[in-house]
Design goal:
The complex is a heterodimer of chains A (350) and B (778). With 350 residues, chain A is an alpha/beta fold. In chain A, 44% of the residues lie in helices and 17% in strands. Chain A is built from 16 helices and 11 strands. In chain A, helix 6 (161-171) packs across helix 7 (181-195) and helix 7 (181-195) runs parallel beside helix 16. The two termini of chain A are 15 Å apart. Chain B has 3 domains: 41-245; 342-507, Reverse transcriptase/Diguanylate cyclase domain (Alpha-Beta Plaits, 2-Layer Sandwich); 526-690 and 746-767, Alpha-Beta Barrel (TIM Barrel). Chain B contains 23 helices and 24 strands. The longest helix of chain B has 68 residues, at 2-69. Chain B starts with a helix and ends in a 10-residue tail after the last helix. Classes of the chains: A alpha/beta (350), B alpha/beta (778). At the A-B interface, helix 3, helix 4, helix 7 and helix 16 of A face helix 3 of B. Chain A: One of its GO terms (molecular function) is polyamine binding. Chain A: Pfam families: SBP_bac_8.
């Protein structure tokens, strides 16, 4: 299990850094891996004279616990999903962000980050697969949730409450954001059945980066966020991974940049956010990490190849049918969390 | 073999009993031990279950402690109402609980409730994400408020045999410390429920294994020591006890394999011991006995002369040794007595038994290998005379020396022969078994035997007038069986005796015939009807003047079976068989009764001469009888003349002389018959009470011959000098009469004078008799 180790590592790092006196001024950002271009960081550093340090997470729940942990003091910025940012901000973990710094924001994303964040990048939840291992390419969530026998123990899922339940619901043609207990129960049953074919509930890039070459060969089909396929192919060293948008329901997410309430560098943090919101920077950053930008202006600055990528920028009709991650009520979250925990316990007990 | 059977009958039951008792004893001990072990095992199990329970319970208490100490709850309580915290706290709770219980931990419920029974926060970690907060949780929290107890815990009994441990603490909502005063408004109850599913599983397993439902008992008064020995108890919580009883069924079930095993072992062991014991006893006790028995059997059936003398110090060997020695001794004794049984004590010769045995064997050898076997029977003549006259000592000495003589003769017999054995059969009878290859050897031996007695037999102290009568029968000529040969040798010997003694006779058919005849006569004599068969004839004799002076009474016998039998044939037989008494008696009766007639015929002074056996003279009754008869018939004295044959030699015996004197005194006259050819020494005649001497026919013919004529007169004179008359018997001719009468003979008797005639004929003859010396009989 990577995530307890990750968590411990993070905690230790964070606690450790509290007692350390900082030589140069450092801005610490809690972020996904491969989610902030080195060139962008370099540019900012040069411009501002601040150092940027990234502290990585690969699990949203973990990120949330870190933010809620009063013992943690040295995080300045956080990349956080739009479905939970308002809640976390309201709970006092994020500093209010008064301005929106993104130019040419597409209307769809307006106000998504609420009072506490600025839109950063957006994408979809989909399926990546090994073209060299899989005979029939997965086309939808059903393929993943009702897997064929050949994929037994070769499937990867993201062990988070929305990433598990959303697709499960979609595979049953249900509303992925439903809080109907009956639906959730069915989803739970489906996931339990599917878990027999699941190799891991760890986030695929993390799993593969620590797996042995033999273990790597075992993961054929996995749930990922769009853009992860580049990371996976980089890890593998060849273009074996392919990303596909499921036909039975595309889930769209938006990441926001937010300032951590307990940060002592809030001014600099805001400035960095502003910097990142610049179209040119955004465009560069977006293309560099392979994830879509919410800014139309920034998009127009991107390469033809990138801007026309159907996976990164799904066509309008796909977008029309796609669903957004909605903020859920606490009861729903709690229930889904319990389902996730029970499922993972169920899987691990086999 | 009865010892074997006995052994089996004793050993097996005893062993069975012993084994059964032993097994039972072991079983009792074992079952007690097993029971104790089971109880110990049970208690161990219960302690294990207790441990499991404690672990699960400690989850609740630990989780609660962590929650209280950690900031999670603080934040929650402080920010209660903020719904995002619900999710955050749940995630945190999950991590804490994971740390305490691990991934596969039990179902845990965490509930935060307020003083009025409202649930503020509910977290459940289980495999059913949809479960609701059970009612008992809030109820328990409420009861805690009521009881005002800051810390409480309880074991909840749920349906389906499941249990849950509920642990609850009241906290001040601001300080999150234990409240000093429980204020409903200011306090919250933090309740953790741990479902003890591993404990429940353990209870199910206990029930499955022990067949009895374990009891959870709440009791403040239970004293563990009071519980029965078959009850396992463990205190899982203060005043809460887990009890399990070891049922009879369970113990039976545990014990039965032990029992079966024990029985199998005991049976097996018993069988092994039994077999071993039997084998050992057989080998070391029965076998030696059987061997001894077999040895004895061999000895009894003559396969061995004695048992093999055992070596060894054990009882059976000692028994065997004793038997060996005893048997050896017995054998020696037996040989000795056997030897004594076959040996004649006096002469040391083999006795009759041995003789027969030896003879049998000799015959068998001869039958197989050929050759002759002769039985030579020897009877000592006149032995009785020696015994009577010289005494038994002399008789014994005679027998001993005769025996030695026989042995010596056989030993020194120069000619080669196969084998011989002399034996004493009885009395004065001896026998020699002679195995020889040439027939004439038997005669040679017989001749030598006779020769031993030439001139009498000389012993150390005596010279005895003893001779031998020898009879010989030879295998295969004279018989094929011993019995036959013995009978024939005996017959031959008797023939020799009858024929004059001091001679040997070889068995022949004529001897047999003679013996048969003798037997016939003997038998006829036994049953003779005297009046019918006997008749008297009378032979007159004359004196010098040719006057008939008297008659000699002679007996004639006509047997219906045998016809006419001559007196010289049957008289000796009668004398030997002792029937002569009867004959004599009849003769005298008849003669006495005829006396008047004779007197009438011959004259008033007729003499009647009657022959008597010298043997009878030995018996006093005879003489008395005779005297009585004479008196009975009124025969005058001097009439009857008793003629006694000389040859017996009885005259030497004093007893006989006494009888003769008695008879003479009673009026009888005594005459010695057949004088001249016997043993009587002339000089002894002086003593004899004799009136007349009758010269034997042979003597008469001899002395009337030229050669011995001159002896006649002196002989007659000798007699005359002793007042003894002389009669000449067997006078054949006138010239003889002349000679004899010239020599002085007083009387003459012979066939030329007159033949014996019955009374009727006598009468007739007498009428025509003319005492003419010149007349010779027609």
């Amino acid at each position: 299990m990577v995530y307890p180790r990750c968590r411990d590592f993070l905690l230790i790092t964070l606690c450790a850094t509290t007692v350390q006196s900082v030589a140069a001024q450092t801005l610490r950002i809690l972020n996904w891996e491969d989610y902030l271009a080195d060139e962008v960081i370099a540019a900012w550093e040069q411009q501002s004279g601040w150092q940027v340090e990234q502290v990585f997470y690969d699990n949203e729940a973990e990120r949330d616990l870190i933010l809620a942990n009063k013992a943690v003091r040295n995080i300045d910025l956080v990349v956080i999903g739009d479905e939970i940012i308002q809640r976390m901000g309201k709970a006092g973990y994020l500093a209010p962000l008064t301005e929106q710094y993104v130019e040419g924001l597409a209307p769809i994303w307006q106000g998504s980050c609420g009072d506490y964040g600025s839109p950063y990048l957006w994408g979809s939840l989909g399926i990546a697969y090994r073209t060299d291992k899989v005979d029939q390419a997965p086309a939808n969530w059903k393929d993943l949730l009702y897997p064929i026998g050949a994929w037994q123990n070769h499937i990867g899922m993201i062990g988070q409450y929305d990433e598990l339940l959303g697709p499960a619901m979609l595979a049953m043609s249900l509303d992925p954001m439903s809080n109907d207990e009956g639906h959730l129960k069915r989803a739970f049953e489906l996931l339990k059945r599917q878990s027999e074919s699941v190799l891991t509930y760890e986030y695929a890039p993390s799993y593969l980066s620590v797996a042995t070459p033999e273990e790597q060969e075992e993961l054929w089909v996995t749930q990922v966020y769009s853009g992860d396929e580049y990371t996976l192919n980089d890890l593998y060293g060849s273009q074996v991974w392919q990303y596909v948008l499921p036909e039975d329901g595309v889930l769209l997410w938006l990441d926001c940049l937010a300032v951590v309430a307990s940060s002592s560098n809030q001014q600099a943090a805001q400035e960095f956010i502003q910097f990142l919101g610049k179209s040119a920077i955004n465009a560069l950053d977006s293309e560099s990490v392979g994830v879509a930008t919410p800014s139309l202006t920034a998009k127009s600055l991107q390469s033809e190849e990138f801007a026309s990528d159907q996976v990164t920028y799904p066509p309008a009709d796909v977008l029309a049918k796609a669903r957004r991650y909605k903020p859920l009520d606490s009861e729903n979250i709690r229930l889904r969390t319990q389902i996730k925990d029970a499922l993972i316990r169920y899987h691990d007990s086999k | 073999m009865t010892l074997n059977k006995r052994l089996l009958l004793i050993v097996i039951p005893l062993l069975c009993i012993g084994v059964i008792l032993g097994t039972y004893g072991v079983y009792r001990v074992q079952s007690k031990a097993l029971q104790d072990i089971e109880l110990a095992k049970l208690e161990n199990r219960l302690r294990n279950v207790h441990r499991i329970f404690e672990q699960e319970v400690s989850v609740a208490t630990t989780a609660l402690s962590l929650l209280v100490e950690g900031q999670t709850l603080v934040e929650y309580v402080a920010n209660s109402g903020d719904d995002i915290n619900d999710y955050i706290v749940s995630q945190r709770m999950d991590r804490i609980i994971d740390g305490v219980v691990g991934q596969d931990g039990p179902r845990i419920i965490v509930s935060l409730s307020n003083g009025v029974g409202q649930n503020l926060y509910y977290y459940e970690r289980s495999d059913n994400p949809f479960s609701r907060l059970p009612d008992f949780v809030l109820e328990y929290a409420q009861s805690q408020f009521r009881k005002q107890s800051p810390v409480a815990s309880k074991l909840m009994f749920l349906n389906g045999g499941r249990h849950a441990f509920i642990h609850s603490r009241l906290l001040n909502r601001y300080t999150l410390a234990e409240p000093l005063v429980v204020d409903i408004n200011e306090s919250v109850a933090l309740t953790v429920v741990a479902y003890t599913h591993r404990f429940d599983q353990a209870l199910i397993e206990l029930e499955r294994d022990y067949g009895v439902h374990p009891q959870l008992i709440y009791s403040t008064t239970t004293d563990i020591s009071q519980l029965s020995a078959s009850m396992g108890v463990v205190e899982i919580l203060p005043n809460t006890y887990l009890e399990l009883e070891l049922t009879e069924e369970y113990l039976q079930q545990v014990l039965s394999p032990v029992l079966s095993w024990l029985m199998a072992v005991s049976v097996g062991f018993g069988a092994v011991v039994c077999v071993a014991l039997l084998l050992i006893i057989r080998r070391f006790i029965i076998l030696p006995i059987a061997r001894l028995d077999q040895q004895l059997q061999f000895v009894m059936t003559d396969r061995q002369s004695n048992i093999v003398r055992p070596i060894g110090k054990d009882e059976i060997s000692r028994l065997g040794v004793k038997f060996y020695d005893l048997y050896d001794q017995l054998n020696a004794n037996l040989r000795e007595s056997h030897s004594m049984a076959v040996t004649d004590a006096l002469t040391k010769l083999p006795n009759r038994t041995r003789f027969q045995d030896y003879a049998r064997k000799a015959l068998m050898r001869a039958a197989t290998n050929g050759g002759y076997v002769s039985l030579i029977y020897i009877d000592l003549d006149n032995f009785k005379f020696v015994n009577d006259r010289l005494g038994h000592e002399a008789g014994d000495e005679l027998l001993q020396e005769a025996a030695q003589a026989f042995l010596g003769l056989l030993k020194h017999d120069g000619k080669r022969r196969t084998g011989s054995m002399a034996s004493r059969l009885s009395g004065d009878e001896f026998a020699i078994v002679l195995s020889h290859s040439e027939l004439e050897e038997r005669e040679r031996i017989s001749r030598n035997l006779i020769a031993l007695f030439d001139g009498g037999f000389k012993t150390e102290r005596y010279i005895t007038p003893v001779s031998a009568s020898v009879g010989v029968a030879t295998f295969p000529d004279d018989g094929s069986e011993l019995r036959e040969l013995i009978a024939n040798a005996d017959m031959a010997m008797y023939h020799a005796k009858r024929s004059g003694k001091n001679r040997y006779d070889l068995y022949s058919y004529s001897i047999a015939r003679e013996a048969r005849r003798v037997k016939l006569i003997e038998d006829a004599l036994k049953f003779v009807d005297c009046d019918q068969e006997f008749s008297l004839v009378f032979m007159p004799f004359m004196d010098k003047g040719h006057k008939i002076c008297g008659v000699e009474v002679l007996l004639r016998w006509y047997s219906p079976e045998l016809g006419q039998i001559q007196p010289d044939e049957f008289v000796p037989i009668a004398e030997q068989t002792g029937t002569y008494g009867k004959i004599d008696n009849w003769v005298f009766r008849k003669a006495f009764s005829e006396y008047p007639n004779l007197q009438e015929i011959v004259g008033a002074d007729a003499t009647i001469a009657i022959n008597i056996s010298a043997a009878e003279l030995g018996q006093k009754e005879f003489s008395h009888n005779l005297i009585e008869l004479k008196a009975e018939y009124g025969v005058p004295d001097g009439v009857v003349e008793l003629e006694i044959t000389e040859t017996f030699g009885y005259f030497a015996v004093e007893q006989v002389l006494d009888v003769l004197r008695l008879l003479r005194d009673a009026g009888f006259r005594i005459a010695i018959d057949d004088f001249g050819i016997g043993y009587t020494p002339l000089l002894q005649m002086i003593d004899y009470p004799v009136d007349k001497v009758k010269l034997d026919k042979e003597l008469v013919s001899r002395v009337t011959g030229e050669r011995y004529r001159q002896l006649l007169a002196p002989t007659v004179e000798l007699c005359h000098l002793q007042n003894i008359r002389v009669t000449a018997e067997g006078v054949e001719s006138i010239s003889q009469v002349a000679v004899l009468s010239e020599a002085g003979c007083d009387f003459f008797q012979g066939y030329s004078i007159a033949t014996p005639m019955p009374i009727g004929a006598l009468k007739r003859w007498f009428k025509s008799y003319v005492p003419n010396p010149d007349l010779s009989r027609q």
